[in-house]
Design brief:
heterodimer; A: seven-stranded mixed β-sheet; four-stranded antiparallel β-sheet; globular; B: 113 residues; mainly beta; six-stranded mixed β-sheet; five-stranded antiparallel β-sheet; 53% strand
Chain lengths: 112, 113
């Protein structure tokens, strides 16, 4: 049983396309996140949601739009993909008040 | 601005010896620190953590030491095993704040048989 699962794992797409990455957690956590690991290997937070409400929104282009239909899901939609969006995107979750977060396996996005 | 720094991009040790991974931070508001381990093509997995009220936390072969005055923490793995070969990320946050984990760049540990 995968605790935090995200799909697709690998995605190759052309510039200008719109794509979505889905994430689900079965840990019963009420906080979910999207992190990005860029070519320099830094893991940086993009968004966090608590019980479907956006609580952290870092400086991310508004082409990136997270959607949380319920507290177990946090999807990431990216419009008008650019070459610089190529990265690994990690979904994660945690229980509010607990600092440990649990990551999914990552989605490798390549924009060509 | 890098608030969490792991200045060694890589470390190589012999099986059975001690591995010491270092991490420095600049933000004095950080009060909780975590180590994550990452294998290729997988997500980071939580390894061990320490609160700023402690200076040491031990879990089996893994021990984390915190020196608040130096804003420095280290992860000791002893004895090191080939399966420990991975990238280790140091992370920090301010509890009661935005709960935003700030990560270092990672150190790639290779344990040679």
């Amino acid at each position: 049983d995968t605790a935090v699962s995200q799909t697709p794992k690998y995605l190759v797409t052309q510039m200008g396309n719109d794509k979505s990455i889905k994430c689900e957690q079965n840990l019963g956590h009420d906080t979910m996140y999207w992190y990005k690991q860029d070519s320099k290997k830094f893991l940086k937070i993009m968004f966090s949601y608590n019980n479907k409400e956006l609580i952290i929104n870092e400086t991310v282009p508004n082409r990136f739009s997270p959607k949380s239909p319920d507290k177990a899901h946090l999807n990431l939609h990216i419009n008008s993909l650019e070459l610089g969006d190529s990265a690994v995107y990690f979904c994660a979750s945690s229980q509010a008040g607990w600092p440990t977060i649990y990551f999914g396996e990552g989605s490798w996005l390549t924009v060509v | 601005d890098q608030q969490v720094k792991q200045n060694s991009p890589s470390l190589s040790v012999q099986e059975g010896r001690i591995s010491i991974l270092n991490c420095d931070y600049t933000n004095s508001m950080f009060d909780y620190f975590l180590w994550y381990k990452k294998y290729p093509a997988e997500g980071p997995t939580f390894l061990i953590s320490i609160s700023s009220i402690k200076d040491k936390n031990e879990d089996g072969r893994f021990t984390v030491f915190l020196n608040k005055s130096a804003k420095h923490l280290s992860l000791h793995i002893v004895p090191s095993q080939p399966g420990d070969s991975a990238v280790y990320f140091c992370a920090a946050l301010t509890q009661g704040g935005s709960e935003k984990l700030v990560f270092g760049k990672g150190t790639k540990l290779t344990v040679n048989p």
